Amino acid sequence: MSLEPQQLEIFSQPVVEIYNYLENELFQLIVKRIANNRDQLTKDTVLEWQIAKYNELHEVNHQMIKEIARYSQKSEKEVSKLFKTITSKSVYDFDAHIDKAIQQGYIERTQVNRANLDSLMLAFQEQAKSSYAFVNQTLIHQSKQAYTRILDDVVSSVATGLYTPDQAISQALNKFAKQGIPALVDKAGKRWSTDSYVRLITRSSVNNIYNQQTLNRMDDYNIDLVLISSHTGARPLCAPYQGKIYDRTGRSKNYPDFRETSYGHPAGILGCNCRHHLLPYIEGFTMNNFVVPSPQENSKVYELTQKQRYYERRIRQAKKELFIAKELQNDETVATAKKVVSRRQKEIRVFVKENDLTRMYEKEKLMTKAV
């Protein structure tokens, strides 16, 4: 039984893509609004232009809410389908493992209450629904802030004579492309991109359902020992515990207490964005076939993965800047932007080849027209 990191990505991707489509729709909506009627902007008319653009904010906000409602409806259906799939997988994986143990006399069969499985799934679904609703509200708020910030930057640059109107708009929009529309601004002021935060929510929800269903079934069978999965590139607070057996009750003399791991820490085992899963361990029956990578190998893969995400973000940013250049109808800037996209694609192509990684094209795309 297993829920491998690659499977987590595959299961989570449809929901992440919906929100990537949404974020890009909002981005393009703002760019087009700012670029429209830019020929009316001069140093002498800068205040009139600013007022006119501010007056459009109500309509812009209405369009954004409409887009978010469309994509939100689609994401809710996808999340519901996803959670049912994961619940079924957890049941199938657990039963496949436990049935063999029952047949060999290691454990006795116990009646499972399906209603409990569905109840847990629905509880996680409501929790996730609340998280996605928060993302939706944040996207609206941050999009409005981005729109007004762009206007202020353009007006300041033109009014002071530092840049021509076209230069000011181009510079402000490219700054917007670099910053993006965050789905979360945390207490430390870190801006979480839509892709990163929705991926965290979705992946964490999927893994939580799978693992909690497993733990509940272990309770049904009075199985105290748990085996933690293992993979390369594990996070620092997870790596020391992977591939090992723990006792959930703390009563065992042969195995350490599960509560002594990083379990319960946001960045620890089964925490936010964790890619580990739990397996019931039955002494004499369950085989621990996990190969635990050395700390050096694990750290290397983790760092390489983080660097690959960095290259992917740079490609998406370059594609946004290319869209801006096309919208502003500047042939020279379009040509330059295309070269930047090509150069960054070459960078990641060389990087994944040199480090024997898998290129993830879906993370380099700008999603458009999903709904």
From TrEMBL:
It comes from the Bacteria. GO terms for molecular function: structural molecule activity. Pfam families: Phage_min_cap2. This is Minor capsid protein. It comes from Listeria fleischmannii FSL S10-1203.
